[in-house]
Specification:
Length: about 160
């Protein structure tokens, strides 16, 4: 398993939850439900991106089905967004999933996340489906993004060769 990669002044590494706390401040940027986080964090591999001693990014890779993994959470601290960190985290997730023998990598985002949809497609994912009313069904409070209610989960997939 790939556990550490240097990125100029950044390091992406596998978090050890028995020794370190989850970076909830970042995880909650991508998923506002502590209940959902409590469900998938213990089952997934949590990778953090550290720069100058500060955690600036995170993603969670989860084995979901045979030969399939999903990036179930990915976030970059607001002060560090639009600097290529999200792309680097996705590239790391792709390499890690390949190394772990997965054939398919999936990711999902809300229907209002235009910048996320563009990022994921630039990284090689293609839109495969929409889970209608996903956020209304699974989240107790409305999620607002870009001035709109986030209702649907847009699902994307990549075949790992």
């Amino acid at each position: 398993m790939q556990t550490e990669t240097m990125l100029t002044d950044m390091t992406i590494r596998l978090l050890n939850p028995t020794e370190e706390d989850y970076p909830y401040n970042l995880l909650l940027l991508a998923d506002p439900s502590r209940e959902a986080l409590a469900d998938y964090l213990p089952r997934g591999d949590v990778f953090t991106c550290v720069s100058q001693g500060h955690t600036v990014g995170v993603y969670v890779l989860l084995h979901t089905r045979p030969f399939t993994a999903e990036i179930v959470n990915i976030a970059v601290a607001e002060a560090h967004q639009r600097q290529g960190i999200g792309t680097r985290l996705i590239q790391h997730a792709i390499a890690t999933a390949r190394m772990q023998g997965f054939k398919t990598l999936e990711i999902g985002t809300g229907n209002c996340g235009a910048s996320q949809l563009m990022l994921y497609q630039r990284c090689g994912f293609t839109i495969t489906s929409v889970d209608h009313d996903f956020f209304r069904l699974h989240y107790p409070e409305r999620i607002m993004e870009n001035g709109m209610e986030c209702r649907h989960m847009v699902r994307l997939r990549m075949t790992l060769l």
